[in-house]
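Posting this for the archive.
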Amino acid sequence: MSDTSRFHRVRPPAKSRIVGPARLPDGATTTAYQAVQPHVCGQCGAAITPDALFSRRTMRRPRASAIGLTQLPVCIACRPLQVEGDVGGMDGTGSSGEEEHHDG
């Protein structure tokens, strides 16, 4: 039997990757993501470019939708964040002053 059956689903390429825990200005914690593909901020409409950091915010969908909640990307201008445990200084700007290489 072949590994590729009609039920085998190919996973689409990742749009972002998890960087790790981050702290918001009010002290709350969130998860920091790094864009692999371009995104649009769900709050202000700004472009989130590949390699830029962002967070996600759960928002209510319009009533016409069958699903009540969705997670939208939010840029660091709308929701500044500080990645925890990063001694390289990654401050939400997407750069730490050092070259980084991430596969995946």
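The radius of gyration is 17 Å. Residues 87-104 have pLDDT under 50 and may be disordered.
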